[in-house]
Design brief:
With about 160 residues, this protein is an alpha+beta fold.
Amino acid sequence: MDIELLNVPQSEFEQVFTAVKQGIFPYVEALFGWDDQFQRERLTSSYLPQWFSWILHGGERIGLLCSKPYEDAQHVHLLIIFPQYQGRQLGAAVMERLHQEAEREGKCRVTLSSFTENHGAIRFYERLGYNVVEEDQEFVSMSRPLGCDLGLKKVVNGEL
């Protein structure tokens, strides 16, 4: 599937905020209550702009990805596929691309968290090979091993 990830310009923060609100509002509202000002400040203070990418399919913007690199892992903060594009395997295609890129960069796993009540997301990630590694009342932490976590030797930057 033809998935592109395009860095989000700082000037498009309002569009990012709208996409994030659309994607997580029901879960945040139910747990903590939604406050626009708090959520805007959280997006600008807890996340770096370079972690955000628009997801494009056939040149059309279909969602938003927020992903943070760590030394041995890639952490997905947000994967939002806009409602009109859901159910077409596009989220799975985005995650497959992310897995491949993370493996090429020598990462051993991809991690993420989901709201405990977001059962559809949890089932989606389990179908992609993620396992629950931690759980509390609000959040489920999940992880999926990549090559080096599976004991596979891989060439990274020209070295074994």
